[in-house]
Amino acid sequence: MLENNIVDQRTSRLKSRSFLKGLLAVMPLTIAVIPWGILAGSLALEAGLTAVQSQAMSAIIFAGSAQLVALGMIKAGVGLGSILITTLLITSRHLLYAMAMRSHISPLPLKWRLGLGFLLTDELFAIANHSHNNSNNNAAKQKQHKFDRWYALGGGLTFYLGWNMATFMGIIAGQSIDNLNELGLDFAIAATFIALVVPTVKKPSILVCVLVSLTLAVICAIFSIQAGLLIASISGMVAGVVYARLTGEGRQLARELPSEDNS
Fold this sequence. Notes:
This protein is mainly alpha-helical. It folds into two domains: 2-200, no CATH class; 202-263, no CATH class. It is built from 13 helices and no strands. The protein has helices at residues 2-32, 34-46, 51-61, 65-75, 80-90, 93-105, 110-119, 122-138, 149-176, 187-197, 204-222, 228-247, 249-256. Helix 7 (110-119) crosses helix 9 (149-176).
């Protein structure tokens, strides 16, 4: 009985430690996204939503850029069908995130799959994936890194609470400060994604992927192509894969990693 209590206490400490690590890992991104959340809260009021509806949008939808685009379209009087299609295209990247994390998430119980699926954002994917890659690189001769659900929960929940707190601040500020959207708060969107992407550029194929996606995203924005984000994302990934195969980058990486027999 005493041994079981000791094991339970040790397990609880490990869970708390992992949760705290996830919290600390996502905290810089949470702080960086505060202007973005403030803008979302104020724009919701300008679009005609009540304070409760504005807060509920962040609490239930929790979609960041898709929220801002949808609010702009609501304010412009665009129909529901167009809003749904546009937000679907914008958030389609989350399907790619889910596919990339499927091998780690699928063995978990349903409540964990639903919870982490709801909390899955660009930021959570970045820290969870970054942690996984670092563990593989630093322990290349050890056993394969195991996905830490508590680390992911700490990061995802912290970002969710931060986003909703920033939205609440935007609702309060939007009721007292005129033309809040003219203060340049939307730059936080670009700054956040730059902070997410730059640390991942460690191989030529990833650089090719980023450059192709960046170029096509700008071109699609100039020509007002609705599916520009999806086109840029898929084209960038295809370009990165093609480059890796043509240069043999994947085979070289496989030779550098230890075989399963030696692990």
